[in-house]
Amino acid sequence: MKELQLKELSAVKDEIEELIHAYVQCIDDNRLEEWPEFFTEDCLYQIISRENYERNMPASIIYCDSKGMLKDRVTAHRQANIFEKHVYRHLVSNIRIINQEEDAYTVHTNYAIFQTRLDGYSEVYNVGRYIDTVVFEGGQAKFKEKKAVYDSLVIPTLLVTPI
Known about the structure:
Elements: H1 2-28, E1 39-49, H2 50-54, E2 62-64, H3 67-79, E3 86-101, E4 104-117, E5 122-137, E6 140-150
Parallel strand pairs: 1-6
Antiparallel strand pairs: 1-2, 3-4, 4-5, 5-6
């Protein structure tokens, strides 16, 4: 019985890891119209400083509490925001399931994001960890909550692209 539970948990972990890797690849490939599909309809996406997160202060750089808000964010990114062209490259590591409550998994993942501008200059853009709540809808892993808790003290340019 225990062996079966370990195999099931291993399969869940594989699906969660694939979700995280597909998520960052979507952003890195600039396929932002697909980005909201990684989330449930009723979701939370937040980019928040480590200091605010640790003090339980809700102030964040980006706060979206539905898939509709995520779609609006992409529309604004494509049509309204003016920013220097750039690309991202995410590195993720230490993906760990921290907790499970019913069908929801709490997952922590370290991330580092490099930004390259069209002039070819690359820099470390943002570093931190994702604190995710992952659920399965129709057998597919999705983010119910995704919090990007950043360690960086300064965000060097306007943050317009999801992280």
